[in-house]
């Protein structure tokens, strides 16, 4: 480019010198036209000489104009060469067989070799093997249609590096018999890679969108514009057209369970997600048949051009989870009521024991103390003896009641000793109650031990009060990851299929305790065949253990 800029001032100087000399000669010629012809010259000759002189001046003026035109042409040619050679776009001329005939500097840079090495070679050799057929079709289209064509394909430089080029070409007719193709080469590697990455990203998104088990939707202006098949399954719709275009509150009850109108609440959530970028909430929706179901909704805003936004919605059916939560809440309430009822029953039992046992003994002792008479030694001694017996009975009843309320044997000697103590206390001349306890884990939770102890007490009390048995057993052992408590008797039994019968025999409290401990209760009994009650408790206890051990 520097050489071209140096040549331009030299051309201008030569043109100026030529024009100056031409003007000087023209002036001299002009003076000749005014010089008179020699004397004796015929008039016709003088007229002819003047016409020739004028014609000569006209030719010289035309020559001057031609020189000016030549200067302008040289300038235009220099500008064209500068634009062609140093353009940021590769230009080349190829023959019908793809042979390079001419190319500029940028084209040689794209192909990675000097022009001297490229001229005469086929451009097809620089096209990736997989795209050569497409390139040949491209050249044929240029020659056939005589219209501009565009093609993007991978090309390989001399050093084997690959780049993506966009070819824009057209065919032209020159002085030769065969047409030529003029091509413009653009390096679009970065754009191509970005487009490929975008295409792959879109394909992945569509795959995730279409194949997701969760409902996937796209919304614009808070109306559905696309959805996957999982949404159709959730709503039980036959095709997308039944949903697309509708408001986000479509297929919803008029009001949500919190009392708010679905339409207004959906608009509120739309504003929130545009403000915050994402939003998660739970929503009650209706299937096509009117059946309600719960979904967990996750909204994500996808900003687009200014003033517009696309929102991606993820629907997950949580109906089973919501029903489980309701069931769990109901169960917890039922268990809490059962614990309170058990506590009330225990309080009434304690009150009855205090009133009918300890209270009566103390009242009788008071009556005998009132009969003590001063001066009547014999009557006083009898009264004192009776009062002593009554007080001893009261002390024994108080000790028994205290033992029932606070299992001191369990605290002092452990669960095995406490179980055996229950059998010892409840055994009588008419009932032989035996206890079998296998070795238990040393790390047995304290609350679990108390719960087992309380259930063993209740089972033995049921045997004593209701079974009318002569033989009974309490068994406690570990089986796998469960602790097994078993109570057997040879009493009158009952129909285990009738829950009212088993509950009337005091087993309802045991059922509640077992449920709190996530265990299982099995009752095997027939009328006249005795009863077998088996309680299975998991050794890994949860937060309900404390509640089960209370009361």
Instruction: Name the helicity range.
Output: 40-55%
User: Beta-strand percentage?
Assistant: 15-25%
Name the assembly state: single chain
Low-confidence stretches: 1-7, 542-548
Describe the protein's architecture and organization:
This protein has 551 residues and is an alpha+beta fold. It contains 15 helices and 15 strands. The protein has helices at residues 2-34, 43-85, 105-111, 115-118, 132-145, 189-211, 229-235, 262-276, 319-370, 377-405, 408-413, 415-426, 446-467, 499-516, 544-549; strands at 90-94, 100-103, 149-156, 162-172, 180-187, 215-220, 223-227, 278-286, 292-303, 309-317, 432-437, 471-479, 482-489, 520-525, 531-538. The strands form 3 sheets. Strands 2-1-5-4-3 form a 5-stranded antiparallel sheet, sandwiched between helices. A hairpin with a 5-residue loop joins strand 14 and strand 15. Helix 12 runs parallel beside helix 13. The radius of gyration is 55 Å and the shape is rod-shaped. The model is unreliable at 1-7 and 542-548 (pLDDT under 50). It is found in: Cytoplasm. Residues 76-146 form the PAS domain. Keywords: 4Fe-4S, ATP-binding, Cytoplasm, Iron, Iron-sulfur, Kinase, Metal-binding, Nucleotide-binding, Phosphoprotein, Transferase, Two-component regulatory system. It is an enzyme of class 2 (transferase).
């Amino acid at each position: 480019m520097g050489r071209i800029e140096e040549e331009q001032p030299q051309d201008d100087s030569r043109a100026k010198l030529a024009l100056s000399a031409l003007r000087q000669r023209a002036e001299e010629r002009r003076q000749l036209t005014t010089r008179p012809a020699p004397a004796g010259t015929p008039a016709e000759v003088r007229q002819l000489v003047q016409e020739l002189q004028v014609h000569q001046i006209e030719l010289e003026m035309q020559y001057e104009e031609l020189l000016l035109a030549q200067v302008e042409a040289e300038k235009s040619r220099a500008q064209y060469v500068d634009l062609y050679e140093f353009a940021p776009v590769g230009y080349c001329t190829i023959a019908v067989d793809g042979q390079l005939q001419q190319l500029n500097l940028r084209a040689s840079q794209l192909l990675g070799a000097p022009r001297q090495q490229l001229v005469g070679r086929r451009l097809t050799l620089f096209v990736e093997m997989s795209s050569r057929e497409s390139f040949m079709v491209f050249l044929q289209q240029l020659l056939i249609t005589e219209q501009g064509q565009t093609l993007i394909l991978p090309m390989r430089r001399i050093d084997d590096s690959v780049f993506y080029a966009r070819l824009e070409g057209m065919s032209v007719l020159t002085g030769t018999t065969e047409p030529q193709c003029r091509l413009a080469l653009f390096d679009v590697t970065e754009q191509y890679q970005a487009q490929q990455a975008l295409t792959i990203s879109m394909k992945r998104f569509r795959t995730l969108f279409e194949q997701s088990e969760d409902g996937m939707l796209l919304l614009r202006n808070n109306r559905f514009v696309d959805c996957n098949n999982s949404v159709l399954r959730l709503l039980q719709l036959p095709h997308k057209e039944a949903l697309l275009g509708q408001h986000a509150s479509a297929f919803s009850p008029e009001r949500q369970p919190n009392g708010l109108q679905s339409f207004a609440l959906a608009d509120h959530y739309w504003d929130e997600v545009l403000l915050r970028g994402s939003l998660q909430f739970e929503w009650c929706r209706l299937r096509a048949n009117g059946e309600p179901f719960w979904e967990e909704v996750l909204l994500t805003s996808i900003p687009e051009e200014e003033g517009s936004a696309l929102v991606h919605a993820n629907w997950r059916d949580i109906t089973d989870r919501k029903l489980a939560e309701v069931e769990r809440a109901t169960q917890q309430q039922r268990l809490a009521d059962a614990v309170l009822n058990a506590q009330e029953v225990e309080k009434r039992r304690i009150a009855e024991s205090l009133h009918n046992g300890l209270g009566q003994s103390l009242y009788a002792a008071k009556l005998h103390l009132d009969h003590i008479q001063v001066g009547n030694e014999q009557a006083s001694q009898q009264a004192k003896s009776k009062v002593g017996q009554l007080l001893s009975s009261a002390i024994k009843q108080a000790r028994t009641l205290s033992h029932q309320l606070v299992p001191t044997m369990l605290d002092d000697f452990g669960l095995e000793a406490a179980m055996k103590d229950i059998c010892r206390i409840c055994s009588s001349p008419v009932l032989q109650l035996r206890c079998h306890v296998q070795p238990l884990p040393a790390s047995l939770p304290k609350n679990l031990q108390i719960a087992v102890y309380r259930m063993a007490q209740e089972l033995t009390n049921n045997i004593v009060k209701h079974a009318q048995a002569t033989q009974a057993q309490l068994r406690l052992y570990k089986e796998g990851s469960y602790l097994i408590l078993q109570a057997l008797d040879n009493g009158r039994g009952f129909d285990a299929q009738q829950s009212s019968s088993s509950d009337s025999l005091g087993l309802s409290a045991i059922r509640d305790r077992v449920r709190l401990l996530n265990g299982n209760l099995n009752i095997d009994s027939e009328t006249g065949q005795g009863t077998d009650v088996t309680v299975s408790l998991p050794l890994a206890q949860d937060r309900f253990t404390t509640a089960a051990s209370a009361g």
